[in-house]
């Protein structure tokens, strides 16, 4: 029964494979604890459903759900997982309506599992996967609406779950805009979009979004937003604003790379404000920088400053006043 259950759930009997698959570790472990009489009733049904794929008759689903209702919540997670497989198979066969209906049934089964075991980590994983699936198949609005009761920040979580699968930065930018349409004004999403826009030098749109993200969160929110805002000010030829934004970051708990970037950006701001002593001091060893000759630091900053201003369309501004 237990080997058949693993096969029916799409997980190899080898425990190592099951762990790698990240589909059955908790789910199958809970099912294995159920009494043999329950397994004897359900496993043959699940095996038949696996063989029939999404063509399984409705009465099979009704029978499985009838068995699951008084049983462990893991059974409802199993029903939800099978519904998700049903949706995937339907989409592969280009049966869009059947796939969207299967997504709805899967989310309904997940709701039953949630009611019985709210802290299920496995169900958390499935819910994000369904958001991704629904997004790709044109049913994202309904999937997101069904998830909001569980995740107040569901749009952001869906983005983080999905961004690793995006092939290009342009797709990531489009995804951020789409999720902001569902959750407008979210500071974290606004900040993430602002970072992407800075990378594309679309400063007129990036700066207001990053300013909003920094102002809306306590203590400025994610330090990455302030860091990118400081560099956006540099690219926009606003060194005083860059200095005011980047200077407080030296007191923040940044990772080493972020701290180095903040120090470099602040040095560039001082350079363009004409304070060369402050610029070189930021990169000295006692300030946490690399110990080099001050003249070499000044030359390096001048070159980096030239690059910054050249990207903003004014290369002469980097050497003005030297």
Describe this structure in words.
71% of the residues lie in helices and 0% in strands. It has a domain at 1-137. The protein starts with a helix and ends in an 11-residue tail after the last helix. The chain has helices spanning 2-8, 15-21, 25-32, 36-52, 58-68, 73-92, 96-116, 121-136, 140-147, 154-163, 169-182, 187-199, 203-216, 223-235, 239-246, 256-272, 276-282, 294-311. With 322 residues, it is mostly helical. Keywords: Membrane, Transmembrane, Transmembrane helix.
Features of this protein?
disordered N terminus; 0% strand; mainly alpha; transmembrane; 18 helices; disordered C terminus; 322 residues; single chain
Which stretches are poorly predicted, pLDDT < 50 over at least 5 residues? 1-28, 163-167, 309-322
- Oligomeric state of shown chains: single chain
Number of strands: 0
Number of helices: 18
Helix fraction, binned, reads over 70%
The helix/strand class is mainly alpha
Please report the distance between the alpha carbons of the first and last residues: 81 Å
Largest sheet: none
Give the mean pLDDT.
Answer: 66
Order of helices and strands: HHHHHHHHHHHHHHHHHH
Provide the fold topology:
Elements: H1 2-8, H2 15-21, H3 25-32, H4 36-52, H5 58-68, H6 73-92, H7 96-116, H8 121-136, H9 140-147, H10 154-163, H11 169-182, H12 187-199, H13 203-216, H14 223-235, H15 239-246, H16 256-272, H17 276-282, H18 294-311
Would you kindly provide a brief summary of this structure?
This protein is mainly alpha-helical and 322 residues long. It is built from 18 helices and no strands.
